[in-house]
Structures are given as C-alpha cells and as structure tokens.
Amino acid sequence: TAHPYERQRNSDSLKALNSYVEQVARGITPRSTSVEFWVKDGEHLTRIDALLPSTGSLGPLFYAFSLITEEELKAGTGREDVSDTNFLEWLRDTVFEAVKIAEQHESLKLRIRESRANIEHKYQLASLQVIWVSQQEQVALVVCL
How far apart are CA 142 and CA 137, in angstroms? Predict the structure, then answer.
C-alpha cells in the first residue's frame, strides 16, 4: 500500500482532532494538541502541521490549511468566543466519521491481505495481486502461476 506512514499519521491526527473538538464542544478546556496531516498536492505528499492551543481555537489548523490569513489567526477565536456549537458538533461528527472510515479501510486492507495469502497457498500460486480499478471499489485480480 502506498504511503503507510502518512496514512497512519493522518489517522492518528484525526483521532487527536476528534478528541480535541469533543472536549471543546463539551465545554472542557482541551490540552494543547499537535496534529500532522499529509495531503496530496498533485503527485506529491505535503506535510501540514498545526499546534492546537488549550484555548480551544481551531485557528492554527485553519491557518495551516490556508483557510484563514495570518491576520485572522492573530485575531483568533478561543473557546470562550465560539458561539456556534453547531459548527463544533458538525466538525466533531465529521472527524469521527473520517476516523471510522480510516479504521474500516485498515480493516479491509488486512482482510484482503489475509484472503490473498490464503488463495495463494490453497491454489499454490506464486503471487496474486489485488488492484483497485475504480472509485466504486471494483477489484481486478492478477494471477501469476
């Protein structure tokens, strides 16, 4: 699988972000949290880091992704300034769903690897490659005897 380290870092950071947002949504002062995301930029992966402060501000994350300017970041909004908890609930739910999908993805990859090994062993194949051929998760198998 391409970029396993980066995928794991994204998954870990999504979990940390989910916890951070959940604390803010509950009115709990969160711990400062460091997140690291890897995003595809054309053919390359780019690392994006953000340190989320104990004030509950998501500004550093928004700034890291170029969603706000440096001036907007400096003006900042901490937990005490956030009046729209619907946004925080939406963000928490979105991050939770992303974490869930990432975990399902890892589980499916493990099942595919195990199934491939079982088929190779059962039919005495030198190798069996599983190739994703479309966004609809259709699979093509390449058998090498």
Answer: 16
